[in-house]
Every structure is written in structure tokens, then in C-alpha cells.
Amino acid sequence: MIDDNKCCAVTRFRSDRQFNDVFPPSIRKFADRHWTPLSVARKVADYLSVKKGSKILDIGSGAGKFCLAAAHYKPEVQFFGVEQRKSLVDEAEAAKKTLGIRNAFFLHGNFMQTNFDLYDHFYFFNSFYENLVWGEKIDNTLEYSENLYHYYNRYLYKLLASRPDGTRLVTYHSVEDEVPTDYQLVGSHLDGLLKFWIKISGLNDVDHENDHPYYKPSRISLEQQEKMIVATGLADRSL
Ligand SMILES: C[S@@+](CC[C@H](N)C(=O)[O-])C[C@H]1O[C@@H](n2cnc3c(N)ncnc32)[C@H](O)[C@@H]1O
């Protein structure tokens, strides 16, 4: 006999609308702009799930949609999310329970407090964007600033630069300021909004102290960045 809960949980993954119903309206309303679509989560999970037991970190996990969906598609892999807003971690835990997911885990905190040594591969959905003036904010519980945006990017860049060769990274809606230059692009989807990277050093000599886009022009042009920001739908076009 099929377990009722399991059966309902499976139907949740048939469409984003069905999945998003796992959240209360106050969280669901952010889905289009802030939570990863199921089709993207599946692609990302396929790329990052290198082997059984791999540990994947979602940097800025929100209400947990990416981790929960990826965990559903890849039950043999563990997905972790770090999220600065406690209320969103609580929502993620509640959704995890409703969905009966066992291989997704949520941590409350700033990503800067996270020990990256514990994880094999990483997912990043432009989490720092809300610090930019035109970035759409989830709420007003935090202090935002452009300086913080650059500081976070630089900090993440350093953490990613310190990972071993073979580390995989997926960026979604990112302008790539956080991607160290020894991460090679191995796949690009959705007109460049979704990018798959792998760290392979030794191809060129990288001085991580000085090669950050803070000091050098970003590897993608300003024009391209503007285009991407508009394409994200996150930009307030009235500005
Ligand atoms: C665009 S949402 C992505 C949510 C999730 N990754 C998903 O795809 O469903 C970005 C999230 O990152 C969180 N965030 C932003 N800066 C953060 C930081 N410094 N540390 C931890 N979380 C952060 C935000 O609170 C927000 O919930």
C-alpha cells in the first residue's frame, strides 16, 4: 500500500506551482524571483552530484527550495544550505518535514561562518544581490549596502579559491565576481544565466590576492552585466 504522505510529496515535484504550495503565501510570493525553479535544481543536482555521499552547499539557501528539490532528485547525495534569515531556515525545516526529505540540512548563519572544508561542491544563486540599491529585497530585517555586496563577493571568492582542484561550482544569475579565475567554465545554459564551473589550477598562474575583480575589470563586460541583471527580472526597472 502506498504511503499517503509519500504519494503527495511526489506530486509536489510535478511543477513549480505545486512545489511552491508547500510554503505559506508569505514565502511563496518570493518564489518567481528568489527560489530556484525545479528544472534548474534538477540540472544543477545532476552536475554537482559527482558521487554517492557527495556534500553540496547552497550558499544562501532561502526557504530551502534548491536543497529540497535537489535532495529529491539525488537521494544518495547530501545537500546543505546556509541561510542568514532564521525565519527562512524555519520555513525550510517545515517544508522538509512536509516533503519527507531526509538528505537536506539547513544551517542558520552567515556563509562567512561556514566551514567550506566540510563540502565538496557549491551552488550560488546570486545571494548578495539584494545589497545593491536596485536589488529586490526579501524584507527589511537586515542592513544592506553596496560595500557589503563587494565584501561578500570578495570573501566568497577567497573561500572558493581555497578549494581543491576538481571542486564544482554552479552559478545562477551571477555576474561572476565571486568566481576565481582558475574555475573553468564547462557549461552554460539559459542564455548564460546558469553556469557550470570546475576548479582546475595549473593552467595559468593565479595570484588570488590581486586578481579579484575588485582590482581588475570583471571578466564579463559592464554591458553584459547590465543585460544579465535585466534578464534576472530582479532589477527594479523603474529605477
Ligand atoms: C536568491 S535567494 C536563493 C535561495 C535558494 N538558494 C534557492 O535557490 O531556493 C538568496 C538567499 O541568500 C540569503 N543570503 C544573502 N546573503 C547571505 C549571507 N551573507 N549569508 C547567508 N545567507 C545569505 C538571502 O537571505 C536569501 O534567502
TrEMBL record:
A Gene Ontology BP annotation from the UniProt entry: methylation
Keyword terms of this UniProt record: Methyltransferase, Transferase
Entry-linked Pfam families: Methyltransf_31
Origin: domain of life: Bacteria
InterPro entries tied to this protein: Methyltranfer_dom (IPR025714), SAM-dependent_MTases_sf (IPR029063)
GO MF annotations, alphabetized: methyltransferase activity
Keyword Transferase: yes
Residue ranges occupied by any Methyltransferase domain in the UniProt entry: 51-118
Protein name: Methyltransferase domain-containing protein
Species of origin: Danxiaibacter flavus
